[in-house]
Automatic annotation (TrEMBL):
A GO term, aspect molecular function: basic amino acid transmembrane transporter activity
Protein name: Putative multidrug resistance protein
Membrane topology reported for the UniProt record: Multi-pass membrane protein
PANTHER family: MAJOR FACILITATOR SUPERFAMILY (PTHR23501), MAJOR FACILITATOR SUPERFAMILY (MFS) PROFILE DOMAIN-CONTAINING PROTEIN (PTHR23501:SF33)
Annotated segments matching region Disordered: 1-54
Single GO cellular component term: fungal-type vacuole membrane
Pfam families: MFS_1
Organism this protein belongs to: Eutypa lata (strain UCR-EL1) (Grapevine dieback disease fungus)
Protein's cellular compartments: Membrane
Predominant cellular place of this UniProt entry's protein: membrane
Amino acid sequence: MADPSAAETTRLLAHEPSSDASSETSSLVSTSTGTLSLENDSSHQQQRREYGTCSSQAVISDEEANKPNEQAAIKPPEQQKYSNAFIARVVISLLIGQFTSNADASLVMATHSVIASEFYDFEDSSWLFISFMLAAVATQSIYGKLSDIYGRKIILLICFGLFAGGCALIGVGQSLSQVILGRVISGSGASGFGVLCALIITDLAPLRDVASWNSYMNVISTLGRSLGGPIGGWLADTVGWRWSFLGQTPIFAVAMLLCYIVLPPLTSTPTTANHEEGTELKDSRLARVDFLGAFLLGAGVLALLLPIEIGGQKVAWTHPLIYVSFAIGTVLLILFVLTESYVAREPIFPLRLLRNRDLVLCYLINCFQGAAQLSMMFSVPLYFQVAGRSSNTVAGAHLFPAVVGNAVGGILSGIWIHRTGCYKALLIFAGASAILSYALLILRWNGDTNWAESLYIVPGGFGTGISMSAVFVALQASIDPSDRAVAASGLFLVMPVGAIIGMALSSAAMLSVLRRTLIPRLVELGLNGLQISEVVKQAVARVDYLDEAPPRVAKAVVESYIDGLEYSHGM
C-alpha cells in the first residue's frame, strides 16, 4: 500500500498543473481523450504521458495512485537547473549564427536569378537551393548523435565553420558549379544549426518553456529571412552578389567566438555503463557513431530525390538514369533498415521510433511545411521580378510580409503553449492558414498585384511560424528523453527533404507550363520555328531577357511565367 500522502500529492498534481508541467489535449492522431503531463527533474529527463482533454482535468484513479514505483506516482517537479538569465545569455549567443544563416536563405532566394544569369545558366538556378538542401539531407541525421557523444558545443562550432567556409567559396567562385559546391559545403554546416540550437534549449529549459525560448529564436530567424532578401538584392545591385556571401565569413567567426565563451559544456554520454563520466577514450566515442547507417540513409534519400530534380528538365522521365536512381535509392534504404535493425550497436535512427504515431505525424507536418515554405520563398521574388520588373531589392522585400507573419505566429504559439500546454489545435489552425494563403495567390496574383494583394502571403508565413514552434514541442512530448537528439535530427531531416521535393516540383511545374503556354503565344505572334526555339531558350535561361525582348514577345513571356507560377502555387 502506498503512502497516502503520496497518493494525495498525485491527485493534486493531476488537478493543478505546475508551471513546469505541460498538458495537451490528446494524442495528435488519437480520438480518445486525456491529458499529457510532463514533469522535469533538474536535468529535465523525466516525462509522463496520459490521454485526456485539455478542457477537462486529468483524473488518476485511486488504484493507479496507490501503485508504488510506477508512472502514476508523479513526484513534484524540482527547480530547473539553469536560471532564465543564464538561458537568455545562451540564446543570445546563438542568435548571430541563426540570424546570418536565415538571412543567407532569403538572400539566395532574391539573387538566384542574378547569380545564375551571370553564368548564362538560369535554367539551373534552382540548384542553388537544391544543392544546399541535398547536402543538408545527407548530413542531418548524424549531428544529433554526434552531439550526444561529443557534446553540443563542439559540434555546433564545427557547423559554423563549415557554413563560413562554404560562403567564402561561393564568393570567389568562377563558375556556377563552383558556386554550387560552396552551397553544398554551407548546407552541410547549416543542417546542424536548427537541431543543435533546439537541443541546447531543450537541455537547459523545462519543456513547457521550450516553445517560448524557441519563439525568440524564431523571431531572430524571421528577422534574418526578412532582411536577407532586401540586403542581398541591394548588394547585387550595387557592389555585386559575391560580397553578400564573403561578408558572412567574419560574422560567423564572431558567432563561433561567442558560442565558445558562453555555451556550457553539456557533457557527452559514456559509451558503456562501465565508463565513468569523462573517462571514455576518443576511439570508443567514435565507435558509437553509426557511420554506415548515416551513409545509407543520406545516400538513399539523395538517390530518390535526384530523379525528382532532373526528371523532365535535364533528362526525360523515361531515361534509364531515372529508373536506376530510384532503384539504387530503394536498395540503399532497405540496407539502411537492415543495418539499423541487426548491425548498428547504437542506430543513427532507431526504427522503433516510427511505431510512435505522434512522432510520424510530426514528421509529416514538418515535411509538408518545408515544401510549402521554400516553394513560396522561391516563387514570390520571381513573380515580382517578372510581372512588375522589380529590382532584386524590391523583389526580395516582397518576402517581408510572410516572414513577419512567421515571427508573429511563432511568438503567439510559444505564449499559447506556455500558458495552456495545448498544441494540437495550433497545428490544425496552422495548416488551414497556409491553405488560405496559397488559394489567394492562385486566384488573385495574375500579373497586376496591388500592395494589399501582396499581403496574401502573410497567412502562409503565420501558419509556418505556428507549426515550427508547436511541432517541436509535440515531438519532444511524445518520446522518451533519451531519444530526444535522434528524434529531433529526424524532424529536422524531413524538413529539407520536403523542401527539396516542394522546390523541385514547383520549379518543374513552372518551367513546364512556361514552355507549354509560351509556344502557342509565339505562334500567334507569327514567329517561325527557329525564332520560337530561341525565345523559349532565352526565357527559361535568364529573367533579364525580358529587358531585351521586343515588347510583344516580352508580354507573351510574362503571361506564360504567370501561368507557370500559378501552377507552382498549386503544388
